[in-house]
Design goal:
The chain is mostly beta strands. The chain has three domains: 18-142, Immunoglobulin-like (Sandwich); 147-255, Immunoglobulins (Immunoglobulin-like), CATH 2.60.40; 258-360, Immunoglobulin-like, CATH 2.60.40. It is built from one helix and 30 strands. The strands form six sheets. Strands 1, 2, 3, 4, 5, 6, 7, 8, 9 and 10 form a ten-stranded mixed β-sheet that branches. Strands 11, 13, 15, 16 and 17 form a five-stranded antiparallel β-sheet that branches. The N and C termini lie far apart (61 Å).
């Protein structure tokens, strides 16, 4: 999709929504759809995320079938409303009983190119003989921007558990008559964004020496990963002295610092020479820097090769050897490793499954 994007998903929305309602003529034993075809959301800010309720009612005497749901961009979708107004599973088709209705939500995230007007649609097919195709249109106007954030969105990807990183956001003059004075920043993840440092910006000049775009503020954010993997999305709200707000989406993904690939070994492996009771796996290290992986608890019948367990390039090879005759029983066994990287310590488990059929044939 070209231009600003709208993402649709369910909850409660504040503010005024202007809706135009359409319905088809009643008929016995036929469905009849009734829903808003136009939703004017008023004035929105770039980067803002707004949730809009949407009801689809069946005023007929037969089940209303809704299918072939299409949107004007890949970030637009529909979901059913669950208890508490929380978005639930996304659907590509719906069925509405006679004289009943479904509650949907549209989550509009203003992204992409900046423009004055937003106009996006949801289109679907129904079995209502008077409304085979239904188009629901969302419109909005973008408010003037006193300051433009760069980048438009902040992405912190694959941050290792317990690790730290930083990101820089600049605020440039939006070219309006009113100047922007930063008053405060609303932190969406205070447990992860542990520090926000604001400094005055600098003037950028072009080759002729003229000011090309005034940099108003430079914002440095410090991220500190929690002790468990997590994926979060929210908005950093930059509030001006006059109450103006700039919305900057923030996406953070925290991954395990140490992770075995594959996560489980299955022995024996098949080869031309017969069954092989050995395998090699990789312990990936998400954070940069040298790490040490050591076998701490090895079950009877197993041998772990630890000759090359110091990782300096983001991964470490671990070789597992098994003597099936020395195993007390087939099934699932756990090898426990301790991993160390700087001051960070972790306990990692590697399951090894010994095939019972192969073991019984011995």
């Amino acid at each position: 999709m070209q231009g600003s994007r709208i993402a649709v998903s369910l909850v409660t929305v504040t503010g005024t929504i202007v809706g135009v309602w359409f319905g088809t003529a009643s008929s016995n034993s036929t469905p009849r759809i009734e829903c808003r075809r136009l939703l004017d959301l008023g004035r929105l800010s770039f980067g803002q995320r707004v949730v809009v309720p949407l009801s689809i009612r069946n005023c007929g005497d037969a089940v209303l079938q809704i299918e072939q749901i299409e949107t004007s961009c890949g970030c637009l979708s529909l979901s059913l409303q669950s208890r508490g107004g929380v978005p639930s599973q996304l659907y590509s088709q719906l069925a509405v009983k006679p004289r009943d209705q479904v509650e949907l939500s549209a989550t509009l995230a203003i992204r992409g190119e900046r423009r004055e007007e937003i106009r996006e649609t949801v289109r679907f097919r129904t079995n209502d003989p008077a409304a085979e195709f239904v188009v629901i249109e969302f419109t909005a106007q973008l408010a003037p921007e006193f300051a433009i954030p760069s980048p438009n969105e902040l992405h912190v990807r694959n941050l290792a558990v317990g690790a730290r990183t930083s990101a820089v956001l600049t605020l440039r003059d939006g070219g309006t008559e009113n100047s922007f004075q930063l008053a405060r920043i609303v932190n969406p993840f205070p447990e992860i964004i542990t520090s926000i440092n604001i400094e005055p910006g600098t003037h950028e000049t072009n080759n002729a020496g003229f000011v090309a775009r005034k940099e108003l503020y430079r914002v440095e954010l410090e991220f500190s990963a929690p002790d468990q993997p997590v994926t979060l999305s929210g908005e950093l709200q930059i509030v001006g002295a006059e109450g103006d707000r700039i919305h900057v989406p923030v996406h953070v993904s925290v991954v395990p610092r140490f992770q075995f690939i594959p996560s489980t070994l299955v022995l024996p492996r098949k080869s031309e020479e017969g069954e092989v009771y050995s395998a090699t796996c990789v312990c990936q290290v998400a954070a940069s820097g040298s790490a040490e992986i050591v076998a701490a608890t090895v079950p009877s019948g197993f041998l772990v090769d630890t000759d090359s367990n110091r990782a300096s390039s983001g991964s470490s090879l671990v070789r597992i050897l098994c003597d099936p005759k020395a195993l007390p029983n087939p099934g699932r066994h756990i090898i426990v490793f301790t991993a160390r990287q700087g001051d960070f310590r972790a306990r990692i488990e590697l399951p090894v499954v010994i095939d019972e059929i192969a073991n019984a044939a011995k």
